[in-house]
Amino acid sequence: MSEPSSPSFARSSWLWGALAGVLVLLCGGAGLASALLAYLTVQPALQAPGDLGALAGQAAALSGGANRIVVVSEDGSLRTLNPDGTDRRLFHLSDLSFSFPAWSPDGAHLAAIGSNGDGTGVYVLEDADDPQATALFLSQEQAPFYLYWAPDSRQIAFLANDTEAGMGLWQVDRVRRAQAKKLATGQPFYWTWLEDSAALFVHSGGARGGAIGGAHLGFLTVSDGRLSANVTTPGTFQTPGVSPSGNYLAYAEAIGPQQSQVVIASRRGDVSQTRPHAGAAAVSWSPGADLLAFISSPAAAPHYFGPLRLLAPGAGEERTLTSRTVIAFFWSPDGRSIAYFSPAGSGNDSGAALPSLLSPASTHPQAERMLLDLWLVNVDSGRQRLLSTFEPTSLFLEQFLPYFDQYALSHRLWSPASNALLIPLVEADGTERVYLVPTDGQPSRALVEGTIGFWSQN
User: pTM of the prediction?
Assistant: First the structure.
């Protein structure tokens, strides 16, 4: 996957160009500057800090686990803390600068990309008062830029730059600490771990220009790096998925020149549901049921921004949860709700005619502010509520959200108890800070300064 992006690749212009096209449409076809100004003059609607002691206690009681948050500071240090702000620990080790930390599924360890003068590597840390960082992989030429824990909380699969193939997929074991091994190459590269931690469901290759070769959608065995035959010819999408029961797969399949459809298929190979889509698609299974959510553009376009819909194996028509222009969405751990992001003030209509082609922006609009709405929708009732309007940090906007379907598998914004979310925002004075946003109407609360933050899975 070209996603999540390596620092050596320029990806921000793509997102800004695509979002700008959406904003122009929503402003009635006005010029780019006028469209952005119309949205960027809206002020963030964050409420004053409140007492979240009860929220933290409720989350801990329901989750029965770590219930911890990690935040990346601007200087590359890490901070862990409880949801109420207590029991803070600072990970400022030597000259290491960390990025995109991820909690192990059991909550006992953190893995993060770490860089210093010796190179860039994958480091594992314990959330302890006397933190130690253990390098499981370190390289100057093949720098890692994304990692994803296996369900067993031992193995870590990660992407690193590859001078020949663009990207390499590697695996390393936290316990055995054997030498990391390269499993495959391809650009882009997306995957999801299977529950037994022995294999991956991968979507790789097919980079624009054909330099890497054709796209592949199949199963990769970790022990020997063996890649199965293509499940089908991949369509225009990013991350494939496996349902919670393990019985169904989700992906997009090519059905003709520039045509693609979302597919739910059984592991036996029987196709259960298909839905043609325009542009690209992004799919994500509910964590608690065999229910698929997906977004896609309502018209031909080089992005997946569009209405949020649900599809179930063997069901009839899909169900639309919102017609807003959704640019990213995240299931709650209990599967009852979905949090989604849309351009601020975009209304409840994604538009019938998005531009057929959105040209990437040539420059980043540094002097302008991009505001996002954070919405919560109940999956059963369809009721939804605006939780916050905010200016996201550039890291969140440019590296995390464009590849949300992959990050949703490895880096969690939701609390374990499904009652709060983390958002990294830019305050009025320019300070970047991570906020905790409850889903029950309580006030949002500022936690600590930082560019992005993630919750433990339990």
Answer: 0.84
